[in-house]
Amino acid sequence: MKGLIAKKVGMTQVFDEDGSLTPVTVIHVEPNTVVAKKTKETAGYDAVVLGLDDVKQNKVTKCYAGQFPENVTPKRNLKEFRNFDAEVSVGDEVGVELLEGIRYLDVTATSKGKGFQGVMKRWGFHGGRSTHGSKFHREAGGTGQCTSPGRTFKNVKMPGRMGRERITVQNLKIVKIDPELKVVMVRGAVPGNKDCTLIIKSAVKK
């Protein structure tokens, strides 16, 4: 398992040698700092904690700053990767070169928030007829029961807040890696807004 903390730049398109077009998402990978290493002797499992984006010393509490070694500046984003398949030490920096030899990625992020939505957009309901005097267009229909049990069961698909959830998209193919620009391009879409924080890992199912 290899992973990094990155930023989403946006989408573009690239052309293959035969001229076919491929839509890609551009992911910017700034060097991640190794904040800590966990072993089976100390924590019961092997893991590496990576950090990204420096924070000023006067902006963090003593409790938060205490988890960083003396030679490491406090970081805003922290992520623990178990069974990290690379030899690193605390204080080292790892970047996009870590992805060399990897063909597929799993990308995790918080999806875009869409606010309060109805059942047609949120759950894909078909909706009622729009003609011939119908008064049932975009409603959810009946959700309650009769006298027994006289209530609505849990997990009934209803209108509500949509999006703003943690989502993982698996098996995104790496189209191109540019070490100079510190970017990696993957085929297809990635959840989240532009400039959002992403967690990219080597694909589990590939």
Q: In what range is the share of β-strand residues? A: 35-45%
Q: What is the chain-wise order of helices and strands? A: EEEEHEEEEHEEEE
What is the percent of helical residues?
A: under 10%
Q: Could you say which structural class the secondary elements and strand pairing correspond to?
A: mainly beta
Topology-level CATH name of the largest domain: Double Stranded RNA Binding Domain
Question: Which CATH first-tier class of the largest domain would you pick?
Answer: Alpha Beta
Order of neighbouring strands in the sheet with most strands: 1-2-11-10-7-12
Number of helical runs?
2
- pLDDT averaged residue by residue: 93
How many individual β-strands? 12
- Radius of gyration, CA atoms, in whole angstroms: 23 Å
CA distance, first residue to last residue = 12 Å
Number of self-contained structural domains: 2
CATH architecture of the largest domain: 2-Layer Sandwich
Q: How would you characterize the largest beta sheet?
A: 6 strands, antiparallel, barrel
